[in-house]
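Recall that a protein's primary structure is simply its ordered list of amino acids. Everything else, from secondary elements to tertiary packing, is in principle encoded there. The following example makes that idea concrete.
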Amino acid sequence: MTDPVPSEFQQEEPAQLKFLRRLITTLTAVMICGLVVVVALLVIRLSDDGPDLPENIALPDGIEAKAVTFGEGWIAVVTADDRILVLNNLTGQIQQEILIKSP
């Protein structure tokens, strides 16, 4: 296929238009990279499998932690079976167990 405008009539692209074309291309690439980073951070953050307990704290078998709160001398663990376990910060022993009643 031939060019509809002969080469002797074509003008060189103005410098401002070249700059604008490069600027738009660069901004597009930056936006794509930013979107990839945001999606990756969301995947990493939302794939967390639960709260981390200190190494000296071990929950009884079959109990899954949903949330953890740290206080002075105690740790409260909300479990998947709607209980709150208050543990000693140093020994990891259960000091109190509270049943959460559903409304």
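The chain has a mean pLDDT of 85. Residues 13 and 19 are 10 Å apart (CA to CA).
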